[in-house]
Amino acid sequence: MEPSILINEARAFVKKQLESDSSGHDWWHIERVTRTALILAKEEGADLFVCELAALLHDIADEKLNPSLEAGLNKVRDWLSSQGVQEEAAEHVMQIISTMSYKGGNNPRVTTKEARVVQDADRLDAIGAMGIARTFAYSGWKGDLIYDPEQPSRREMTKEEYRHGKSTAVNHFYEKLLKLKDLMNTESGKRMAESRHSYMERFLEQFYEEWDGRDLIQR
Ligand code: ADP
Ligand code: NI
């Protein structure tokens, strides 16, 4: 099949799967990540077709949306073979989406240029104003508070505390979002992450000022 037709088929497939998701994996997240992946792929000289296809499919297998990660990956594999995607490209896409998730930042670094591009694109959508919006949306979906001054915050929680549902949206910044800048793979991605990262820092400063009402005191 023509690459451009295949990309359109992938868009339709993903849109249908993620249309009604409110956990931060909605179609528009995919749209933004795919656009960013193409920008990065051009700057980094990566394979555009593999990057675009992997970006489109990257969240389909997520554990939150499937009975298991394996079941999710099988869904993607089946779709790729039903479309007759060339073996090598299909394998590469499978390899990218099965290795790129965050997993507490402990996953081994991804190995191919295309995987580095798609992972950076996904991470860029997890920081900055976009990342802030998604985090609060996700926390609401999960039933967490926006912030709790009596809970440990401004530091990483222990696994035990996390399991007991004591995380908050603000805490997620320390658990993950503020770490992403230093985990970027590509030079272009690192550069793009800088301004989104400082925007989050400014947001947190303002958040704490307003929380305490310090911004209301005449100086
Ligand atoms: P992705 O791989 O697309 O970044 P994730 O499943 O890791 O997706 O998360 C979806 C969105 O929700 C991201 O913006 C992420 O930062 C945010 N998120 C993930 N876990 C939490 C959490 N425990 N609390 C708040 N936000 C979260
Ligand atoms: Ni994603």
UniProtKB/TrEMBL annotation:
It comes from the Bacteria. This is HD domain-containing protein. PANTHER family: HD_PDEASE DOMAIN-CONTAINING PROTEIN, SUPERFAMILY HYDROLASE, PUTATIVE (AFU_ORTHOLOGUE AFUA_1G03035)-RELATED. Residues 26-127 form the HD domain. InterPro entries: HD/PDEase_dom, HD_domain. PROSITE patterns: HD.
